Amino acid sequence: MNLLNVAKHLLHLAQTEYGFEKSATTNDEFFLAERLYEILKSIKDSHFSELYTYDCLDFDDECDEMTTEEESDDDNDDHDENEDSDIQTHFTLEEMENIIEWVDQHPNAKIATISNRFKKKRAIEKETVHDADLELYAIQKARELTWDTFKASKCFINTFKRENRISSRRYNKIITRTNPNRKFCTLNDAHNWIDSKRTLISKYSSHQILNSDHCSFQQEYIPPRTLSFTGERTTEVAVKKKYNTTHSYTVQPVTSADGHLLDKFLLILQEKENTFGVNVQKKLIVPPNVVVKASKSGKSSDEKHHAFLNEVLRPLVGKKFLLFLDSWKTQADLTKFRAAFPNQDSQLLIFPEGSTGYIQPQDLSLFRSWRFIHEKIEHYIHINRTEMN
Fold it and tell me: Which parts of the sequence are annotated with region: Disordered (predicted)?
């Protein structure tokens, strides 16, 4: 690289843009020129001797191959960790909303606590990712968009990495994965699974095809944000009982494919000792179509699922039915299901992990309506100043 040629062309660009006006050189301009010279000199002396320009992403393999993954690995061994700090501090809109919601709920949290809790971690710290993985992701996305002629060429991969500041790095920390990988399920995967089960589903009438799932609510609903004065250090809100804002309850109804909500459902209330106290039992009113249980979390458990099968579902069904449940491990245990329903005409089907948002009936219809109605009731009570216990 000839720095004199670079300087001449730089002068030409500056004269073209700003004209040929002459003036005395200031100290700041001397300083800037020296700094620019040092930058150009460092570029000349470094191994980054090639500069690339591009106008668009290429969709085939007609461009020249650039630096290979193995070469870039050697080039970046001494890469400074601080260079990626700006990447780690970038958050999506959803992540920022989650941070704001958490800070609203913990007004006394210190900056260090917030930073540590929401520290950005790069995917490379979780599992190894290589050019082949980027190629796979790109091809999968192209197939979803029906770009049948798309090829994730070497040029495309290198361009993508430059645009997103991705480089091959040597890892210096290995961690044990505490949670198993969640399976990735697309809409097509979910529909293909349904198609594979149509022969079995066709053996049952619509009133014999059942679905059940859990839906949780807060006893006292409070939005995560409130109108207040800008700049105040602490924003407080008053509720009837602070305990009720986290004190949730869970319902588990049963619906049929012919659009009916069956006559019984499970209600799980949150209690400190995992059971109802004496005073609570005296005052508790249990309707005949509700099976009420208690848990510390207000969520379901192995014991509560056993109660659901035997006390809720058994009285509602005959010998022949088909039950759809999600892939929660406790529900997916066929042994528990067979213990409650030994007749082979009763069948259990488990939705594939990650597919319930696409094909589970209660997720797509019933629970959305419930949450909408829940918010409407809260709004009506507030506007009309209705006392509600």
Answer: 65-84
